């Protein structure tokens, strides 16, 4: 074994740079990982937000049992159907947290190493501003990503500094502020440590440092001879930190139980959880409870997203959209399936957009009502531009409906749109009118009469995109459109799952089977195709032919245009559908169920002992691969079989399934299919109450996946785009196949100016680097989400891969101070029987002369009535009046400015022990007060680290690159 390999093994065993990180790694024992810390704090804060919301609505709130789980919290929040999106949000935050160790391992400030306190705090403050700005514009995905990153740095403070050794029992709240001091940081010249006593490092921090409460953190370096550790400073510690071998020897990190200060690991981790909760509370305060829960994926229903052609011939279609929108809003608002977010993107020619994204059904209705059909010139329209904008604006796993009667003019966006569909796992259904519809003629701009009727073959691009996404291309006459829109209402159930989906082009006779388990309700089959006939056979052997769609199993059967819908009585067991069609068709079987799954392909580290990172683009073709599968809603369920099934053929690859902690499974495949495929999952619910032979369940991913022999990676950026300042994004393209000239395309959904190389030359099996320069115009609104897609196309165009990057445009934040309250008057005449009397107060709230101004005032405590108004003589002053029963003697106002700084003002008229009727305890504070019930689950630690293998490999690689193979 080479010295390098030995070192790498050592790295693997000695642990991480920060609390451990975990993606099915091998080491770490019972130590708490970044994922555990993040997950617990999210569950805790989410429960608090749901409780506050319930109480504000006059409902009771019951805490879920300890330890909290995503599922139990979703249930307590009365949003049990959102456990999938909640879990997905948590995983995204955890992934971004983990990535800081992967991509920023050598930047001390990201880990509070080397006494870089000012720099670390600045990262947190800037990131926090970006999170708040994103939330304000309903850009929750961007907010989650940024949140994960800053939480990593925040959590490392407790492991790497001497905060715990100074016997602090509470987090350092000043780390999430910018207008205060985080404490006295040791001068560079001041010694902070002595040698450890052999392996015993319990007393290596100098007493005067601890007594005087001087902040220090460990120095860290991989390079023995180029150590940056000043004289007398503490080291991080551990076998691969070379500074810990220089006097003063030893270290102070608390990353794991085995670390230099491992005896304080639990205290450090608990403080990191509390600090994470505190930062999340601040985000919650700035956003408000409901938007905060949206960011966490806790919502009632799922998003409703329409992309609508508004050119001249679309009048009838727009009218149909209005009708279906009203009907969904009227029937779903207030129910479990109330849309969580409404998204509208109109497109025309040459214009498209803007994207409307709102949680208010009336704003959405108004936006739809204000659409009118006009313009468009020639027949093709900017449909893919509109779709691109929608795909970057929707949360993952959303369903998008696109209405048009024309072909796409912007077909160059085909691969970008495909990349975004894959990346966001969005389902796109096209509602295409005019194929068999009226031969309506209309004027083009140059006055020529033109037949705008779309040919059948013209719709192929839409059919391909629909199929890749798991949606349908529904082709109907304009007069029939309303009849086809029932699919939109049916799809709006947030517990919709796919049991089976297949497409055949050209059509051929084929027999399909699917299993319906006990949890499935509202079983529905969708078929598109002009001449598809079929026979359906139920588990009990009852058979129905498409020629006669009546009978005991059929609830409704409908056929409009190329689209058939069958709603079936749910019968548990194995169904069969025998399809016959000479022309192309698609078949999709869906139902409602709480059992579903999430999956991500994993990137296998090339390091000595393996390890994974989540892959954000197409998996490698022709090699083995793994995926992480998370089972949703199956408390007592297990996965038995995971198969990659070709979308348009019968080829399949079986994976080997290994259960991991919690609901996660690691699935390994010998190879990835070379054509489009879907993930098919089978499993068993071990429902103890029912018969022993419970029926297995089957679920399938909607979105198709493709492998690629290309990899496209982009350098880590801090994901913030400052308007007016160009951002350089370095990327690299590698191929495991033939070389040649690779076409590069970089597009962003905002149409911001960018430059990039139009092609890169790669040798066979080679790689090349390029740079995209992206500039947000000076007038870009802060919080705008920009999605950049960089694609590489292999010569011949058959193979493509991409990387999708999200940026938040953020104007430089100058307001870091919180609004303040000033009590103007307080009147109370509270008597012994509190229900007979009232109290009231009036307060003025200001944000200072330099501030951005008061944005929002809300009640965090107190169930009285609050009114706010702007002062007549000074619009920078907001007046608050509050009246409450004496039975509700406390009030806490949350006061938030435009930059998202959250202040809190607390007042009380609690009677003293002698039942004085006077207000005896009037206090006002501007600290963020916290709710009382602060339970945190004592979850069992996960099986442990780590993408440490990834880190270690990076470490090894860097050492190798530096030519220092010891
Ligand atoms: C809350 O719970 C209490 C006691 O369990 C019950 O009496 C009351 O009706 C409940 N209130 C609401 C709004 O459900
Ligand atoms: C849980 O959250 C609350 C507020 O949301 C906070 O006060 C409390 O400290 C948290 N508990 C822990 C252990 O972090
Ligand atoms: C489908 O099943 C029937 C028997 O029920 C069989 O005759 C037919 O050949 C099968 N079709 C295909 C394509 O396998
Ligand atoms: Ca048109
Ligand atoms: Ca046109
Ligand atoms: Ca301010």
Question: What's this, in brief?
Answer:
Helix content is 23%, strand content 28%. It contains 17 helices and 44 strands.
Mean pLDDT: 86
Tell me the β content: 25-35%
Indicate how many domains the architecture comprises. Answer: 6
Bound molecules: 2-acetamido-2-deoxy-beta-D-glucopyranose, calcium ion
The structural class is alpha+beta
Task: Please give the order of strands in the largest beta sheet.
Answer: 5-4-3-6-7-10
> So what's the overall shape?
globular
- The tally of helices reads 17
Major beta-sheet overview: 6 strands, mixed
Could you walk me through the main structural features you see in this protein, from its secondary elements to its overall organization?
This protein has six domains: 3-11 and 33-296, no CATH class; 302-494, Rossmann fold (3-Layer(aba) Sandwich), CATH 3.40.50; 495-593, Sandwich (Jelly Rolls); 596-700, Immunoglobulin-like, CATH 2.60.40; 710-809, Immunoglobulin-like; 820-943, Immunoglobulin-like, CATH 2.60.40. The protein is of the alpha+beta class and 966 residues long. The strands form eleven sheets. A six-stranded mixed β-sheet has the order 5-4-3-6-7-10, with helices on both faces. α6 runs antiparallel to α8 and α12 packs parallel to α13 (414-424). A hairpin with an 8-residue loop joins β4 and β5. The chain is 23% helix and 28% strand. Mean pLDDT is 86; it is low at 1-16, 436-451 and 913-966. One calcium ion (CA) is lined by residues 309, 311, 313, 376, 381, 405-406.
């Amino acid at each position: 074994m080479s010295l390098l390999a030995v070192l790498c093994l050592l790295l693997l065993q000695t642990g991480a740079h920060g609390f451990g990180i975990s993606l099915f790694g091998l080491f770490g024992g019972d130590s708490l990982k970044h994922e555990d810390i993040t997950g617990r704090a999210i569950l805790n804060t989410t429960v608090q937000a749901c409780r506050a919301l319930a109480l504000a609505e006059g409902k009771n709130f019951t805490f879920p049992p300890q330890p909290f789980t995503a599922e139990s919290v979703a249930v307590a929040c009365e949003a049990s159907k959102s456990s999938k999106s909640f879990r997905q949000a948590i995983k995204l935050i955890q992934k971004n947290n983990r990535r800081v160790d992967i991509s920023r391992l050598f930047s001390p400030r990201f880990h509070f190493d080397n006494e870089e306190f000012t720099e670390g705090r600045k990262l947190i403050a800037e990131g926090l501003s970006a999170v708040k700005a994103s939330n304000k514009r309903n850009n929750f995905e961007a907010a989650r990503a940024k949140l994960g990153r800053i939480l990593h740095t925040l959590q490392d403070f407790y492991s790497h500094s001497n905060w715990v050794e100074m016997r602090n029992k509470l987090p350092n709240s000043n780390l999430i502020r910018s207008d205060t001091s985080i404490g006295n940081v040791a001068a560079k010249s001041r010694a902070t440590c002595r040698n450890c006593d052999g392996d015993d490092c319990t007393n290596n921090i100098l007493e005067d440092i601890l007594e005087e409460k001087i902040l220090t953190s460990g120095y860290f370096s991989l390079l023995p001879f180029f150590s940056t550790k000043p004289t007398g400073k503490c080291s991080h510690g551990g076998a691969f930190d070379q500074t810990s071998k220089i006097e003063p020897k030893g270290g102070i990190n608390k990353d794991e139980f085995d670390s230099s200060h491992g005896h304080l690991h639990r205290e450090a981790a608990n403080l990191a959880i509390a600090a994470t909760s505190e930062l999340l509370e601040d985000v919650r305060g700035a956003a408000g409870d409901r938007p905060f829960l949206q960011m966490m994926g806790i919502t009632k229903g799922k998003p409703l997203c329409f992309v609508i052609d508004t050119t001249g011939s679309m009048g009838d279609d727009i009218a149909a959209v209005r009708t279906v929108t009203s009907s969904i809003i009227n029937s779903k608002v207030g129910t479990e399936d109330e849309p969580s977010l409404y998204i509208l993107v109109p497109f025309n020619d040459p214009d498209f957009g803007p994207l409307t994204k709102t949680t208010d059904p009336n704003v959405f209705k108004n936006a739809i009502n204000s659409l009118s059909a006009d313009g468009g010139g020639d027949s093709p329209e900017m449909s893919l531009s509109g779709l691109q904008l929608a795909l970057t604006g929707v949360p993952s796993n959303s369903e998008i409906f696109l209405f048009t009667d024309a072909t796409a003019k912007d077909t160059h966006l085909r691969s970008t749109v495909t990349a975004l569909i894959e990346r966001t796992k969005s389902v796109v259904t096209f509602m295409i009118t005019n194929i068999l519809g009226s031969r309506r003629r209309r004027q083009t701009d140059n006055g020529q009469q033109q037949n705008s009727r779309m040919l059948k073959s013209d719709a192929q691009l839409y059919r391909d995109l629909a199929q890749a996404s798991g949606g349908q291309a529904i082709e109907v006459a304009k007069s029939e459109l309303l009849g086809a829109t029932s699919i939109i209402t049916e799809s709006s159930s947030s517990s919709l799952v796919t049991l089976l989906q297949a497409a055949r082009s050209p059509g051929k006779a084929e027999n399909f089977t699917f299993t319906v388990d006990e949890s499935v309700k509202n079983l529905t089959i969708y078929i598109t195709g002009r001449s598809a006939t079929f026979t359906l056979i139920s588990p009990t052997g009852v058979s129905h032919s498409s020629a006669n769609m009546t009978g005991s199993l059929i609830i409704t059967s409908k056929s409009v245009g190329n689209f058939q819908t069958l709603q079936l009585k749910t019968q548990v067991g194995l169904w069969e559908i025998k399809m016959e069609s000479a022309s192309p068709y698609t078949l999709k079987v869906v139902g409602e169920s709480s059992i579903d799954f999430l999956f991500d392909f994993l990137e296998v580290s090339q390091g000595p002992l393996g390890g994974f990172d989540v892959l954000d683009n197409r998996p490698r073709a022709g090699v083995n691969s793994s995926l992480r599968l998370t089972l949703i809603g199956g408390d007592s369920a297990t996965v038995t079989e995971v198969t990659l099934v070709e979308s348009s053929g019968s080829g399949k690859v079986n994976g080997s399934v290994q259960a991991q902690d919690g609901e996660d499974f690691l699935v390994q495949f010998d190879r990835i299919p070379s054509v489009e495929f879907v993930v098919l999952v089978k499993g068993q619910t071990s429902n103890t109450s029912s018969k022993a032979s419970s029926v297995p369940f089957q679920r399938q991913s909607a979105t198709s996946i493709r492998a690629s022999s290309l990899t496209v990676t982009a350098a880590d950026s801090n994901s913030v785009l400052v308007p007016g300042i160009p951002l350089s994004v370095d990327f690299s393209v590698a191929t495991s196949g033939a070389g040649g000239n690779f076409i590069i395309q970089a597009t962003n959904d905002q149409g911001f100016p960018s430059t990039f190389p139009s092609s890169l030359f790669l040798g066979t099996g080679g790689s090349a680097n390029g740079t995209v320069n992206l500039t947000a115009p000076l007038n870009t609104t802060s919080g705008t989400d920009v999605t950049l897609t960089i694609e590489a196309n292999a010569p011949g165009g058959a193979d493509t891969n991409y990387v999708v990057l999200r940026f938040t445009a953020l104007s430089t934040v100058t307001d870091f101070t919180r609004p303040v309250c000033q009590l103007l008057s307080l009147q109370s005449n509270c008597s012994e029987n509190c229900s007979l009397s009232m109290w009231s107060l009036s307060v003025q709230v200001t944000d200072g002369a330099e501030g951005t101004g008061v944005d929002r005032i809300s009640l965090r405590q107190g169930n009285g009535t609050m009114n706010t108004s702007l002062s007549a003589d000074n619009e920078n002053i907001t007046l608050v009046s509050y009246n409450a029963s004496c039975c509700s003697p406390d009030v806490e106002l949350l006061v938030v400015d435009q930059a998202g700084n959250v202040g809190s003002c607390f007042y009380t008229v609690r009677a003293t022990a002698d039942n004085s009727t006077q207000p005896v305890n009037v206090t006002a504070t501007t600290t963020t007060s916290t709710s009382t019930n602060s339970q945190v689950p004592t979850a069992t630690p996960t099986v442990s680290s780590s993408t440490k293998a990834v880190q270690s490999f990076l470490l090894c690689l860097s050492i190798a690159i530096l030519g220092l193979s010891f």
